[in-house]
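Convert to structure. Protein one:
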Amino acid sequence: NAAVNWYEKAAGQHHAAAQTNLASLYWNGQGTTKNVQAAIKWYTLSATNGNAVAQVNLGNAYKLGIGVPQDFSLAVKWYEKAAKAQHPSAIYYLGVMHENGTGVSKNITKAESLYLESAARGDGSAYYKLGMLHSHLQNPVLAYALFNVAASKTLLFQEEAIYRRDYLAKKLNENDLRRAQDLSKELTQSDKFIELVQSSINR
């Protein structure tokens, strides 16, 4: 396959993006035979070379124990490296690890902070996680707005986000529902997402 050959040549010359792309081809069996061990090899080289996408994928491999022994601490290590490069998915996954106490001490406050940062950078799953936190914290207006945005931004939690948004819609009075709908528009349009969420918490 021409793509595999090209990426192998560039990867051998320590080109981090080519190493990541080659790893992805091996991981998915695209244009070549599926080979998870080869994928891990190239993800590791690319991640070590500072490629954030490779760092996230390697973190996922360690979290799930695919191609490597399951190791939550190593998963956190690679997510943290990618998060320093402001990779939205890495920040989101770190939030999940902190929320669940996986590979790190459980810390809901830290998880919320990471979800806020990830959502501000466009990660749809982070909107859903924030919605869950604030529905538990009895802030239905904010939770509705977050679920409403999540419904259009994440496939992973889309059905759950729609269900929870519609459930809250039935619980809110007419005025609060209008506030929640207006807030969801503001959340997608504002360049000060974190400040907007925090001000909604403090109302």
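Protein two, convert as well:
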Amino acid sequence: SVTPAFPEDTEVPAGGPTGPEDDETAPPTDPPPPPPPDTGGGDTGGGGVEPPPDPSPVDPGVEPQVFPGFNGNIQDAINASSDGDRFSIPPGNYSGFNVTKSLEIWGNNVNVTGGAPVIRISANNVKLVGFDVSGGTNSYQNGAIHSDSHSNIQLINIYTHHNTGPGWAFHSCNNVLVEGGGTAYNRQAGYNGGGTSALTVRY
């Protein structure tokens, strides 16, 4: 165990000793580094700037093949798919989309930006893996990734940043998993709009 510098009930006078640095035999210590500059990041809910992102990826399994005949538009791939399909998106920059079917979509090295929300989930049994999501102009209750009244949603290794609202938001959803990835410079990391059950977040 660690012995405190003073017993718990000992009053230390102002200007009095505070530890080894006041011992004449103690080596000099360097002054503390200056605080980091305010970078203008978003409010985290408690005020201040969110820390730099620290993505913590998890193993999501085997990546599926790129959507056959992909034409550069994620929404077109979703519209042409069928419930239960699994496919990936080639690396690149894309506009937002609405998942209207039960799909597993991978987007490693895929940047999706813009919209309110950037990604909407409008179906049950949806799994998104690896997307970078930014530039959402959503309000404080509506996430850059957003869903209302749907079940069995997984966001795996998703990185949300620089959105005007939360990185994600779920309203009256059930069985939602947010795992891996990271979040920074959003209004807040995520938002449970109420009525959502079995919401698990593991960064």
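DSSP finds one helix and 14 strands in the chain. The longest strand covers residues 104-115.
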